[in-house]
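RETRY 2/3 - previous attempt timed out on the joint model. Re-submitting the same 394-residue input unchanged.
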Amino acid sequence: MTESTPGRRRGDDLERAILEATLEELAEVGYANLRIESVAARARAGKASLYKRWPSRAHLVRAAARYQGAKGDKHFEPSGDVRADLARVMRRIAAFQAGPDGEAIRGFVGELTDTPEGEELRDQIERPRLRVVAQVFEAGIANGTVRPEALAPRIVNLAPSLMTHYFLTRGKPAPPEVIDEILDLVVMPLITERSPE
Amino acid sequence: MTESTPGRRRGDDLERAILEATLEELAEVGYANLRIESVAARARAGKASLYKRWPSRAHLVRAAARYQGAKGDKHFEPSGDVRADLARVMRRIAAFQAGPDGEAIRGFVGELTDTPEGEELRDQIERPRLRVVAQVFEAGIANGTVRPEALAPRIVNLAPSLMTHYFLTRGKPAPPEVIDEILDLVVMPLITERSPE
DNA sequence: TAGATAGTGAACGCGACGTTCACTAAATGC
DNA sequence: GCATTTAGTGAACGTCGCGTTCACTATCTA
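RETRY 2/3 succeeded.
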């Protein structure tokens, strides 16, 4: 739902309307079935206005994802209970994947070769996640429940990577049982201080 | 390179030629840019012959991947050195991803929603990998270097999943350094018998 | 050797792409 | 407040690949 009969919009106003329309369309029909003309129609804009701004569907969708990302930059407060915190983070990732951004990401994989463009996009999505997971780990290190070595990027990345892998290969985000299993069988054993047996 | 002027092929002969052409085309232009007409041209076949056999590009490509898979069903003999064996398996996965099958897989992700079709395809790719990794683990369990709990599917799946994740998100298979890091920081610590410190 | 079967290649309508253009609404300057 | 510039609209256009159809022909079978 955008505004109602605002005459003729221009500039940022119009741009926002188009990006919103893109997100809605993405959520409804998915990346593969996204038609530029549908986005234009939904935004009540001319196709030319879209092409003036973005050269291709991929660019448009990436802009929309970025736009969306800028909105939901919520803070995360680690509780110190590492397992519970990670579960929260992972559920948040699942929710993100269930929305239009998830569709966008899946779409990109198809066209993503080894370009700087792709790297930029990946960083943009990964970096905030890594920061959050690292925070959680740090809280755990502080209270002695997590090994300091867990801060290695590959390990910090592990839970998010597995979430993404599930999402990309199954077409839907990991359900709670899977999240639990990932935590109990993989992540927690790796990061917790080895209890002297 | 297919055969030379075999008059007019039919049946399995023709089918093989088309699948070969699909694989070549896939390797050259990738899934996203695969044109049915190019495949037909390369196979010196009519489009109708393709559509008679496979209803869509996705089906054609899946058939080609299966065809290819049927060729390279090599046996794997675990040496007992778990780390070395896993490294070999992972390098093999990387090589697989670098070829036309990799392109095919990436392509499917875009259209893969939560359907039985998708599940079938995933199984087809995952199952052999899991068998191999499980064999490696079993050899390790037998000689006491691997914990029996490592046979949990989620853990057996771990290395292949991370390979796939890298491939899908970077557009190219994981290089050797990444494989080493995955092994040393993630997989090996998780599966090896905890040494009493 | 005749009939049945299977492949060819050209043509078709379709839908979406990405572009262009005459027209018009909003912003700007005087 | 009127004239000019800037930006968006919407319809039309050529192009491309899709998936289908059809008249023709090569191969197989009996």
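Residues 116-142 of chain A form the longest helix (27 residues). Closing ticket.
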